[in-house]
Design a protein that fits this description.
By secondary structure, this protein is an alpha/beta fold. It contains ten helices and 15 strands. It has three domains: about 70 residues, Winged helix-like DNA-binding domain superfamily/Winged helix DNA-binding domain (Arc Repressor Mutant, subunit A, Orthogonal Bundle), CATH 1.10.10.10; about 110 residues, ATPase, nucleotide binding domain (Nucleotidyltransferase, domain 5); about 120 residues, 2-Layer Sandwich (Nucleotidyltransferase, domain 5), CATH 3.30.420.40. The strands form four sheets. The chain has a five-stranded mixed β-sheet, sandwiched between helices. A hairpin with a 2-residue loop joins strand 12 and strand 13. Helix 7 packs across helix 8.
Length: about 325
């Protein structure tokens, strides 16, 4: 049997790659100890991974006895991820426009490219922008895309100003590239990114992303699993009776009032252990006072911990990395790294 068709060898290769990805560096004796594989097997696997430029020989480490041993490091620049975030542009005048934030990161999350591009009015222009970045000098392994809209089976079911409704974005992207693409709602990505970075993924969480002069996005997370509902519409807050016929809040006071009512509703319905709230331009103390003074919340038996995410872009970037790696051996886990 050819080595590339040997399932046991392929399993061992995956295990060894995942090990060094997490450890960052190791000598062969440590690989033998950590994997339980034989010295002969480790020697053969390491030789192959060095040849493929996945492992790099770093230096020699003097042992307590015997000759120095070669130290191997993981090559995080072996491949890269393209992370694309369509989000509302910050504006002192509260004008509502979108922008596209584009990052290329290596397997360790180091940013090689970070650009901001005004969002084009035509979705075909967005495809051209993505096409431009996947043909740069970096070997893109996966693409992660997030936008202000609910997605179900690649089709956007509800979105910012209804701009993307019914757009089969996954199908359109596959016309320009065979690179695997993962697409998810911005509130989900913000919540997951914050939880991953702060080791909260084993909790029950409600995430609320509430930009100025906009309707909020909601995420329901149960021990690391997103609860998305039928057609991805679970928690779509603009369909709450209290908000369906209302315009987006025009003042900070109106926004924090809505926010406290939303927290009370989801605390009663979901009873999460944690709320993660992202409303970067609103004063945190103002939000805390309004939520703390909500009489409905004070009477409810569930007493969640409330976190305020003050770095939305960082959470989005981490969330997109989680999205593109969650089903791979390179799944990010800040607690282990």
């Amino acid at each position: 049997m050819r080595e590339e068709n040997n399932p046991i060898r392929q399993k061992n290769l995956r295990e060894l790659k995942a090990l060094l990805f997490k450890k960052r560096k190791a000598i062969k004796a440590e690989m033998v100890k950590d994997t339980g594989l034989s010295v002969v097997t480790i020697n053969s696997l390491v030789k192959e991974l060095v040849k493929e430029n996945i492992f790099l020989e770093n230096s020699f480490v003097q042992q307590k006895t015997g000759r120095p041993a070669a130290d191997y490091i993981f090559n995080y620049d072996k491949s890269f991820y393209l992370l694309v975030s369509i989000q509302e542009k910050k504006s002192a005048k509260r004008k509502r426009n979108l922008e596209t934030i584009i990052k290329i990161v290596n397997l360790d999350g180091d940013e090689k490219v970070s650009d901001i591009v005004d969002f084009p009015n035509d979705t075909d222009d967005l495809l051209q922008i993505i096409d431009k970045y996947i043909h740069r000098e970096y070997e893109i392994e996966r693409i992660g895309l997030t936008l202000p809209g609910k997605i179900f089976e690649g089709v956007i079911t509800s979105s910012w100003e209804n701009m993307f409704d019914s757009w089969n974005i996954e199908k359109e992207l596959k016309k320009i590239t065979d690179i695997p693409i993962k697409i998810q709602n911005d509130a989900h990505i913000m919540t997951m990114g914050y939880c991953v970075e702060n080791n909260l993924t084993n909790e029950s969480v409600v995430g609320i992303y509430y930009p100025e002069k906009s309707m909020p996005g909601i995420t329901i997370l149960s021990k690391g699993v997103l609860i998305e509902g039928q057609k991805g519409l679970a928690g779509e807050i603009k369909y709450l009776p209290m908000l369906m016929d209302k315009a987006a809040p025009g003042t900070d006071e109106e926004l924090v009032h809505n926010l406290s009512e939303i927290v009370a509703i989801y605390n009663a319905v979901i009873a999460p252990s944690i709320f993660v709230i992202s409303s970067e331009n609103i004063d945190e103390e103002m939000m805390k006072r309004q939520i703390g003074g909500n009489t409905h919340l004070s009477r409810q038996p569930n007493k969640p911990v409330i976190y305020f995410d003050r770095n939305f872009q960082q959470s989005i970037t981490v969330g997109l990395r989680w999205l593109v790696t969650k089903d791979t051996i390179y799944k990010i886990n800040f607690q282990e790294r």
